[in-house]
Every structure is written in C-alpha cells, then in structure tokens.
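Z., the sequence and structure:
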Amino acid sequence: MINLDLNPTIVSVGSLDIGWHGIMMFLGTCTGVGVTLWLARKVGIKDEITFSAALWAVIFGFIGARVTNVIDNWAEYYSHNPGKILAVQEGGLGWYGCLIGGTLAVAVYSRIAKFSLGRFADAAAPGIFAGLSIGRIGCTLNGDAIGAETSLPWGLAYTNPAAVVPYQLLGVPTHPSPVYEILWNVVMLVILWRLWKRLTPDGSLFLVSLVLYGVGRFIISWSRAEDLVWGGPLHQSHVISIGIVLFGVVMLIVRKTRLVKRETGPPAELAPSG
C-alpha cells in the first residue's frame, strides 16, 4: 500500500485556493495547445486558427466538464452544497463532458472560420490526450477520480483530511485509477504517432483516438469508485464509453465508404446495344 499525505491546496491567496489539480490542468492545457499548434502547422493550418479553436475548446470544454460533474453528483453532493458548484479549484470536472463540449465548440467554429474540421481534429488528437495525461496527475495528487478499494500492493491510500475523497475512503487503499489512465494514454500516443498522416480521409485519426480512449476508459472504469446507473452493473462512464466507441466506429466506416465512392466514381453506364 502507498500512503499519500498531500494537501491538495498548494497556497491560498485570500479566498482563492491554488491547488495541484488546477496547476496540472493549466500545464495540461498548455501542452495540448502546444502539440496541436506544432502538428497543425505541418498540415497547413494557420496559428491564429489553432489559437482561436483552442480558446473555444477550452471555454466550452470547461463548461461541459463542470456541468456533467454537477449533474452526476447532484443528488448526493451538490444539492446539499450548492455553493460548491463553482469551486472548480477543488476538482470535480468530468472529462467526457470536456471532450464533448470542446469538440462541439470547435465544430461550430470551423463552420464560422471555414477551415477543415477533420484536418484540425487529426492535429489536435495527440495534444488532447497528452494534455489529459498531465491533468490526470492532478487527479492522482488530490484524490479526484478515486478508485475503488483494493488489496493490491500498489493500492493508493489518501491520508490527508483535505484530500478530495469520500470520507469513507480516507486512509483506505484504492486503485490508482488516474495512473491507469495515464499509462493507457501513453500507449495511445504511441499508436497515434505511428498513424499520423497515414489515415484517410481527414478526421480519421481523431476518430481512432476516440475509439481507443473509449475502449481503455471502459476497462479502467471497473476500477473507479463510481455509482452504478439503471441499477447496475455499469457505471455512467461505461455507458458514455460505449457511445463514444460506437460513434467513432460508425463514423470511420461512413467516412471511409464515402471516400472510396469518390475515388472510384459512379459506375460506367452500359453502352447502348445495336
């Protein structure tokens, strides 16, 4: 068992708490934007497009992340602590909400600015999951996204009373679920890097990243301390993971089929007889 006695708050300035989660989120966001900027340049996307799209993604991704977390924990926590809804420095951001909110925002912006959404999404895919890996370090340090109880030797026990963990799990060895996700993201990044600019049509790499992440998250969610939905046996993240994987697979098939039809062209008409 590994004991972690770490206060999630690094320093307090008045009523503002600066914590590990916020710092890692900031570093993860900077890393994601930096990697996306670098790859976007390689495919001819202007820097101003990348910065503007990143701003849209960050703003609406953040909103989506918080909204999904509040909805998911409304009955047992936020309905009794409405003042904590805006206390984002304490953690409590749903990654799937961030992904969906950010993706939809960039899709809308691509229509406004008239740039290739698929090409930009492929450039953004490695950056998204590199940034997420850094953000998950913050989750590991403050107890956000805590795992279920375990007797495994690498079980992580949060012993600091200020840790963002359910009181019944304080000091209890749990699965280091965010660490599992970081490791899976590293595997994903290796795969995405090898597939970079090898898939057609544009947007395929992003869709592959959704499928890979959805599969990994589905498995990792069994180790998470999450509530069951619809009476079990699945967690909310299981259900969303299934939806993400199905969406990615279907879109890959549809887009590949359309590409093949465009490349082969319509069937030649039969020459008139006689």
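The CA atoms of residues 55 and 106 lie 9 Å apart. The longest strand covers residues 9-13.

Let me know what you think.
H.
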